[in-house]
């Protein structure tokens, strides 16, 4: 085997734990060593040297919540694994964890095989899977044990979307009991879908059909109620719990209270809840449909609680919930009836940049940026320290990040396969310059040099934040 050695010289290495003025040695796709500028590093003999002077050297992002080619709302999300992982690479994300879907009445294995068929040989960066449980029954529960053993260690359940992915409290309790025994982690979409459907019906009957009503019927209290219920069910089952896409201040309060009691309860939020609001959902001429996702965008006042939660570690992870639908032909399915707008927003390309912007705006510090976007998602989902850090032995998933570059987000320049940007015209300071995935350059000074099929499937361990 030919040995390839690369040095990244002159940068500021930032991990969740440290900031070091250090050079990084990469050998055969792994981090081999770090050394202070001008020390041992001067003697490294390498085939390749990348100059990171004045730049940050950070771990590749781990986006633990994506939906590529996802069947939803009568259509499929518009990024497949080829386009979506290429966009991820452009944005400095080198690992995604996507959701394989169990079709109701069918085994988990079938859903998983289907997701491998979609993803294998298509990805530009590494990928792993969670499993969506659409049908919790004796067979499914047994299959969960096998999946945990082979590296699918987390399962998403929905308290929302009756008739689609919804599970009732009994099914939820059974699945939680199973993970309490097999080491898996339940990821909960916490909204009271039964109550929401009543409010949807009433809104439509009263002629309230615009996208903004999507946000109005999906009440913050119904997110908080479901979050509370999920926490209590997890307590009864003795299982840990990860609540996905938290958007409401009242839901953060439920998580904070549980964590004060010492319960193994975790929370994720997403950039759309931190940067966008119901003002976007109210944009005229049906433009609000671009921002329809669930949980919904909230009034701007909720953002302070989300930022606080990220600072106090009551929220641990920022993922994108990347689930893009084109405005033309997809979001338009819901003209005249907001409940028919496919739920989901694009975002896989912009998470690292938006969170860097949050550093500049004083919401979080630099190491916390890396913690919530790289290290903790890797730990949460059993990928650490292979992913999420820069340390000897870790995969050489490394981003050279220019903290001074200026960019404007736009559908004209993004790489996601979707015809609008949720952040059109937003100015960002900071930009991904170069991206290595297991030592291979996939973005080279703002040119894509990767290939579909470079990305490898990564089986995962269990949650590393317990006990
Ligand atoms: N979040 C959303 O609106 N769409 C994707 C499916 C989900 O995560 O609930
Ligand atoms: Zn969800
Ligand atoms: Zn999702």
Automatic annotation (TrEMBL):
Entry EC no(s): 3.5.2.2
Molecular function GO terms recorded: dihydropyrimidinase activity; metal ion binding
Record PTM text: Carbamylation allows a single lysine to coordinate two divalent metal cations.
CDD domains in the cross-refs: D-HYD
Every Amidohydrolase-related domain range: 56-426
Modified residues (N6-carboxylysine): 156
Ubl conjugation listed as a keyword: no
Stated name of the protein: Dihydropyrimidinase
Species for this entry: Streptomyces daliensis
Lineage: Bacteria, Bacillati, Actinomycetota, Actinomycetes, Kitasatosporales
